[in-house]
Design a protein that fits this description.
Elements lengths: L23 E9 L3 E35 L2 E35 L9 E9 L6 E11 L21
Antiparallel strand pairs: 1-4, 2-3, 4-5
């Protein structure tokens, strides 16, 4: 260790998990034998709400007493009245944010042979195979290729059906 360095990292170990593997991309089949009309929904919706309450109470009470004391006799009378008024304000603020899109994907089988129509979607899987990402990259394949995945990734296709 060079002089003047503090030995603060000698206990640190650096290692790779899953042998440094990369994510895996492949085609996933959504296959049919006729016309395929598929709608792909992408996005999210989020709602945030806050609520505020305030209470106010007003009270008014009044009382009047009268009476007399006379040697062996005494008499008194009291009259009272009260009034209470409550006010409660309740305000709720809510905001919803929706960032989504419905993306229609038509695979018209009428223009192809009778063998079938296949819709293929590009998916990416993590190296540990615990998570998938379904992308918006799709390919319609017709005829004898309808149930055969494209041989190239989505960004290397040179024509519409990746053949």
């Amino acid at each position: 260790m060079p002089s003047g360095w503090n030995d603060r990292v000698s206990s640190v170990a650096v290692y790779r998990t899953y042998g440094g593997s990369n994510a895996i991309g492949k085609w996933k089949s959504v296959t049919g034998t006729g016309t395929v009309n598929f709608t792909y929904h992408v996005g999210f919706s989020s709602t945030k709400s806050t609520e505020e309450q305030t209470n106010q109470e007003y009270s008014l009470k009044y009382e009047m007493s009268t009476g007399f004391d006379f040697e062996v006799e005494s008499l008194s009378e009291t009259i009272s009245e009260s009034y209470t008024y409550d006010i409660m304000d309740d305000a709720k603020f809510s905001m919803t944010k929706d960032l989504s899109i419905d993306w229609p994907i038509p695979c018209d089988g009428a223009s192809s042979s009778t063998e079938g129509v296949g819709l293929w979607q590009w998916v990416v899987q993590t190296a540990d195979k615990n998570s998938w990402v379904l992308t918006t990259h799709t390919v319609c394949r017709y005829g004898s290729l309808f149930n055969v995945p494209p041989k190239c990734p989505w960004n290397a296709c040179s024509n519409g059906d990746c053949s």
